[in-house]
Description:
The complex is a heterodimer. Chain A is an alpha/beta fold. Chain A has 2 domains: 2-215, Rossmann fold; 235-265. Chain A contains 6 helices and 13 strands. The model of chain A has no long low-confidence stretch (mean pLDDT 92). By secondary structure, chain B is an alpha/beta fold.
Amino acid sequence: MKIIVPIKQVPETSNVKMDPETGTMIRTGVEPIVNPLDLYAIEEAVRLKNQYGGEIVAVTMGPPSAHKALREAISMGCDEGILLSDKKFAGADTWSTSYVLSKAIEKIGNFDIILCGERATDGDTGQVGPGIAAWLNIPFSTYVSQISEVTETKVTVKRIVENGYQLLDVERPTLITVVKEINFPRLPTLDGKIKAKQAEIPVWGPEEITAESEHLGLKGSPTRVVKISTPKVSRDGERFSPKTDGEMEEVVDCIIRFFEEKEII
Amino acid sequence: MDYKGVWILGEQDRGKVQTVSYELLKRGKTLAEKLNVDLVAVLLGYQVSPAELESLIHYGADKVVYVDDPVFGNFLPDPYINSLTKLIDKYKPEILIASATSTGRTVAPAIAIKCHAGLTADCTGLDIEEGSRNLIQTRPAIGGNILATIKSPDHRPQMATVRPHSNQPMDPDPTRKGEVIYEKLEAKFLKSRSRQVAFIEMKEEGANIQDAEIVIAGGKGCKTEENFKMITELAKILNGAVGASREAVDLGWAKYPHQVGLSGKTVSPSMYLCAGISGAVQHLAGIKTAQNIVAINSDPDAQIFQLADIAVEADMFEFLPMLIEKLKARLNK
């Protein structure tokens, strides 16, 4: 079985602090990492490979330095990594990104399952997974919290939706986006790290994947970012710093009065 | 471009139109009025009653385009995507907005590819640019650290998803009149390569945090699973739902459906009370639309305080038991 895992390198945003003076992001020490939600897709690919056999190819589109993300994927158990990097890819939105990834996946060929993270933590769109499936015209499932069975013709998945879980039989080949409930990603092993360090990472550009140039990069992207601003978060609320039991009790009473005012009790 | 009209993607569950549809109608109304065009609700379903379809008109739709087929009894991507793509091709709306629900977030990206449309996820603001009639879309990005303004000037329809429960519906007007169009589609648009074999309802108490009026949330500051139970207890006393920060979910104190924040759910309750949550930007992004926020944290520099209406700098292990006790007495529990 051949599994393809498209991944993304992102800035480490979860621990980002805002500078209260300037209202901007403090970038110091913000290293690029593998999108945390992609680790669940990599882990699931490794588990499926261990159970059913086969190989795993990780693929990413990004700057030349994004080979590091692929090496991390290999250190966790992926067999190969392919980097899609070219100036013409730069500035792509999700429409163009999913086009490039789908063309690369067509070139890799012969795949059975594509596993994606639910979304990337920087763009937060969750659009590239379904987008790849649409380009490849294959069935897909989003928000998958369990892959219960893979047979010759179908994959059985459990997807989490607002009011419960949907169990689906999906024809192969198929694309699946996974949520973090699905597994607990492993740490790289020492062997894995050695393999990752030694791995040859091919770099493909538009010619290698026979991509049409009008679909690439900023030029090929329907959306345009026209402005970036920093949201104002402050509500200028009331501040209490109770020290004694008595002060503490006063604040408790104040909260209860607040609940009454707002008619929640 | 000969694209005209504002469409919203309605959602139904077992024949009942979902609230998110009405929320979208309010968003769509503002846009349709500025553009001076019809507001259309498109709905795919099976045996949805005429009264349910009319309700979309009461909540602001000028027209309802409805496709009825057994395949829409459960959500499956193929027939949704193919039918909507076909309908877009036929009616050519200039704008299509969907809710950022599991359904909207699944079908919208695939439709955008097939229609060669620009799609912006999770918009918090939608407006029309004067003159150009372009849709101006605002959304948080990079973990909520920035707001991006986006448009798709050369592609139609302009597509966007909007966070569920990020706005209220309009008051329904039962006298409002409109047209319901029953669309028939060829069988090829209704085929599905996936099949639902079962549906497991989520019955866990307090899990539906998105619809809750009161959310009580805890984070890493609870220190242990045992302590997190104070959060659960307080939620129970107030008939609220339990929320949790990403750290608390990662530590296993609460399940993923309880997670609040960009990588979890956006909540907009009347009251959000949290303890032991420092307020990472990605968490703050999930609670911004809460009407009232009370935060308890021992760290005077906790970012959560920026967003709190009442900020209590105190040890939650001393403060919460007192709050629980007094609330119990007040509510005779």
